[in-house]
Amino acid sequence: MAQFFQAKKKTLSGQSLTLAITGMDHQGRGIAKHNNKVCFVSGALTGETVKAKLIEDKARYSAAKTVKVEHPSDARVKPFCEYYQQCGGCQLQHLRLDQQLVEKQLAVSQLFAKFAKLDAMNWQVPLLSESTHYRRSARLAVMFDKTAKKMRVGYRAQGSKQIVSVQHCAVLSEAFTDIFTVFDELLNQYNELRSVSHIQLCQADEQNFVVIRHTKTISDKLKNTIAALGLTHQWQIIWQGETQHINHDHVAMPFYQLPELGLKFEFGLENFIQVNAQVNQAMLSQAVDWLNLNGDEQVLDLFCGIGNFSLALANNAKTVVGVEGVASAVAMAAQNAQTNHIANAHFHCFDLTQNMQQAPWFSKELDILVLDPSRTGALAILEQLPLKQFKTILYVSCDPVTLARDSAIITQAGFSLQKIGLMNMFPHTGHIETMALFQRR
Fold first, then answer.
1. Residue 389 to residue 157: CA distance in whole angstroms
2. Residue 120's pLDDT band (boundaries 50, 70, 90)?
3. What is the domain class of 137-203+208-240 according to CATH?
């Protein structure tokens, strides 16, 4: 693998600034001007004046951290989590929930104006969920603290590898309310557990899974002890050992159901699923509504995962072709089609960053394109697809920068942005999820 030189960040400490915050960026940081360049200020809100400490100073921008708010915004609120100032999980608890959506929508609009040269945005009502206990999956960090001479379990601190020990998490599913205290005790009670590197949590519809990743052998006796303890909390304990393979033997396959669409999705614990179940259901229903298929369309669903969008659209389409680069997800998508008695959805494993010449899954009859890429976006495949053959493109994004960048390619190919809407998959964080609908002009 090629290695590229990266210049080290120039970091500063102790330099205090007074900054007027004129807006917020797509990561939830305040924006100010310092030395005639942009300064990104964590912990600051639009309209505020803050005292901040400069932590980074580069040629084109600088970064600072709020130390004191001198003139607070009317939208500033007290964070509800006692670990908020240390934990890196949430970034916007100090901003009123409704204003979080306002700032996120404005940030997306500004990125579209910059990259796609689009100013007229037909914003739709955002998709919402409960603002706490919305996470059905999470990854907990585990590390031996040499200074304290104990194991720590919690979340990474903001911009650091250090672990913030927590006893509860207000955005995590209530099924895992006691997970931190239980494992803090276990990890420090048994020396064998010092090889645990992280703990993965996943709430399925009928079971709650706790996957324990460990790098050294753990005795069956201890495993049985922890499994029995897990059952008292209604947790199914899974051990992921040195092979890094999650053993699903003797464990019922996790699944989630979408009652409004009449679908059931099984998934492996290594497969990606949307963290927020409530928003996932609303997102799929909105996709069905926006595309308004009449039964004649042939849909190409790229980055299809376990078939989340493919199967939701299949009942209203002539055919659906799903493409995904992860083989285990493709196998699960095919299995989910069978489980739901859907015969017009077909799935292929293909790396969508590679050359698609002679790709077996592509045909000139495909006329609807659905994209649901990772944060890196869909640039590689968009540059190869004959976009003009599609009449409609639905783009589901988890990164507004790559969405705006890719939208420039789509509009240059002859499409108009018809609708766009936020999906607040991660309340109180800087993450922005967006759905955009493009129609061929």
1. 47
2. confident
3. mainly beta
Q: Do domains 112-130+256-440 and 137-203+208-240 have the same CATH topology?
A: no
Q: Tell me which residue of 432, 400, 420 sits closest to 101, measured CA to CA.
A: 432
> What is the reported pLDDT for 308?
98
- 100-127 as b/e, with b when 16 or more CB fall inside 10 Å? bbbbbbebbbbbbeebbebeebeeeebb
Per-residue tokens: 212: 């324990």
90 counts as catalytic: no
Confidence at 260, pLDDT banded by 50, 70, 90 = very high
Answer yes or no: is pLDDT of 18 > 70: yes
Residues 6 or more apart in contact with residue 235 via CB below 8 angstroms: 175, 176, 179, 208, 209, 210
**May I ask the CATH architecture of the domain 1-76?**
Beta Barrel (2.40)
Distance of alpha carbon 158 from alpha carbon 165, whole angstroms: 13
pLDDT of residue 55: 93
Q: Helix or strand or coil: residue 28?
A: coil
Confidence of residue 193 (pLDDT cuts 50, 70, 90): very high
Residue of 39, 169, 202, 398 with catalytic role: 398
- Rounded CA separation 201/207 (Å): 11
Residue 407 is predicted with a pLDDT of 98
Task: Assess contact for 66 and 85: CB atoms under 8 A.
Answer: no
Cα–Cα distance measured from residue 94 to residue 90, given in angstroms and rounded to the nearest whole number: 10
What is the residue whose two structure tokens read 């998934």? 267
Kindly indicate the confidence band of residue 29, based on its pLDDT and cuts at 50, 70 and 90. Answer: very high
**Confidence label for 191 from pLDDT (cuts 50, 70 and 90):** very high
Separation of alpha carbons 197 and 184, rounded Å: 13
Torsion region of 125: left, alpha or beta (phi above 0 gives left; psi -120 to 50 gives alpha)? beta
Tokens standing for residue 185: 């005790």
Where do the domains of the chain lie? Answer: 1-76, 112-130+256-440, 137-203+208-240
The pLDDT value recorded for residue 9 is: 47
Would residue 342 be called left, alpha or beta, if left means φ above 0 and alpha means ψ between -120 and 50 degrees? beta
Domain 112-130+256-440 indexed as CATH 3.40.50.150: yes
Full DSSP string of 206-227: S-EEEEEEESS---HHHHHHHH
Asked if residues 66 and 30 have their Cβ atoms less than 8 Å apart, the reply is: yes
Q: What is the mean pLDDT of the chain?
A: 94
| CA neighbours closer than 13 Å in the CB half-sphere of residue 223 | 14
